[in-house]
Amino acid sequence: MSDRAFLLTLAYDGTDFAGWQRQRDTRTVQGELERLLERLGDRPARVTGAGRTDAGVHATGQAAGVVMPASWTPATLKRAVNGLAPRDLWVQDAREVPTHLHPRYDALSRRYRYLLAVGEDGASPFRRRYEWHVRDPLDLAVLNAEAAVLIGDHGCRAFAVARTAPADDPHRCLIHRAAWREREGGLVFDIEANRFLHHMVRFLVGTMIDVALGRRPAGTLAHLLTLDSNQETSAPAPAHGLYLEGVRYPAEKLELAVAA
């Protein structure tokens, strides 16, 4: 029997990882997972993620693909990886998929959320590892007025680290959802798009918070969407409040061929 392709849904605490992408002498999510899968498959393993999270960014639904020997099943692979994985990395789900599925290029969209802790209680040591603490009150209506202009197909150079995409890349992103909501002790920003640029969500959050705190005028995001650089954009929000929440694929891309 030939090899099997698997799509893993991962959760990880990004605090002690230097991001997703493997690096020679630094601990990363991809590197850690490939080390475990190489041990299990008794051969080199190459893991392809749906996206690259930065250092300190967490995930509750990162998607990653790997090809393993045919003796593995989704259940045995999930159990074996979790039996070896460190405490800050976990396989939530594993499923067999067609070998032609590309975890990055076949994804329709990615969903992120950003957590804010607002007020004095947000300074708790049990929260500040996973939320950005903002002491001053924030006007939800102001935040959502800024976020509303993001819906649609936009050039987003103002919300990307310069020179991290090819020069001929138009930096266009199709944003399906962008909205703030209240939660106990704080706020959440939810955003879904077909792609995200380097630091994009963090630039957006940092800028919107500046507007809500009165440091920048209303309409700032609409103005920045017209620009070709990030020179006027606010500093990015801290990485530790950001979570990759899920990845969506076309159903037909996930379907295995049925033998006649």
Taking all Cα atoms into account, the compactness measure Rg is: 20 Å
The residue ranges in which pLDDT falls below 50 over 5 or more consecutive positions are none
Morphology call: globular
Helix content: 10-25%
Tally of helical segments? 6
Biggest sheet descriptor: 10 strands, mixed
Integer count of domains: 2
Gap from first CA to last CA: 17 Å
Walk me through what this model shows.
By secondary structure, the protein is an alpha+beta fold. It has 2 domains: 103 residues, Pseudouridine synthase I, catalytic domain, N-terminal subdomain (Alpha-Beta Plaits), CATH 3.30.70; 137 residues, Pseudouridine synthase I, catalytic domain, C-terminal subdomain (Alpha-Beta Plaits, 2-Layer Sandwich). Strands 1, 2, 3, 4, 5, 6, 7, 8, 9 and 10 form a 10-stranded mixed β-sheet that branches. It is globular, with a radius of gyration of 20 Å.
Outline:
With 260 residues, the chain is α+β, with helices and mostly antiparallel strands. It has helices at 29-41, 74-84, 140-148, 200-212, 220-224, 251-254, and strands spanning 4-12, 48-49, 58-68, 89-97, 109-118, 132-134, 152-155, 172-183, 186-193, 242-248. It starts with a strand and ends in a 6-residue tail after the last helix.
Jot down its keywords.
Alpha-Beta Plaits, 2 domains, 29% strand, alpha+beta, single chain, ten-stranded mixed beta sheet, 260 residues
Helix and strand topology:
Blueprint: E1 4-12, H1 29-41, E2 48-49, E3 58-68, H2 74-84, E4 89-97, E5 109-118, E6 132-134, H3 140-148, E7 152-155, E8 172-183, E9 186-193, H4 200-212, H5 220-224, E10 242-248, H6 251-254
Parallel strand pairs: 3-10, 5-6
Antiparallel strand pairs: 1-3, 1-4, 2-3, 5-9, 5-10, 7-8, 8-9
Helix pairs in contact: 3-4
